[in-house]
Amino acid sequence: MAKMVRKTDLPTKICRSCGLPFAWRRKWSRTWDEVKFCSERCRRTKPKSG
Fold first, then answer.
1. Nearest to 35 by CA among 19, 50, 14
2. Beta strand residue intervals within the chain, DSSP E
3. How deeply is 18 buried, as exposed, middle or buried, from its count of CB atoms within 10 A (0-12, 13-18, 19+)?
4. Residues 6 or more apart from 28 whose CB is under 8 A from it?
5. d(CA 3, CA 41)
């Protein structure tokens, strides 16, 4: 059985579109360095600041 990790212990980033923090997700495990947005909606909208 895999060791459980608390959500507060996961790495976080700031979304480039909405500016809110978001946490690591398993589906991003291979591409975490490339993830810039918290959701598809934010990815589709233009960032507030470059």
1. 14
2. 12-14, 21-23
3. middle
4. 35
5. 32
Q: What is the pLDDT of residues 21-47, one digit of tens each?
A: 999 999 999 999 999 999 999 999 876
User: Global pTM?
Assistant: 0.73
Distance CA 29, CA 35 (A): 10
* The two structure tokens encoding residue 46: 């233009």
Q: Are 18 and 25 in contact (CB under 8 A)?
A: no
Of 10, 39, 9, 4, the closest CA to residue 24 belongs to: 10
Is residue 20 a contact partner of residue 14, using CB atoms and an 8 Å limit? yes
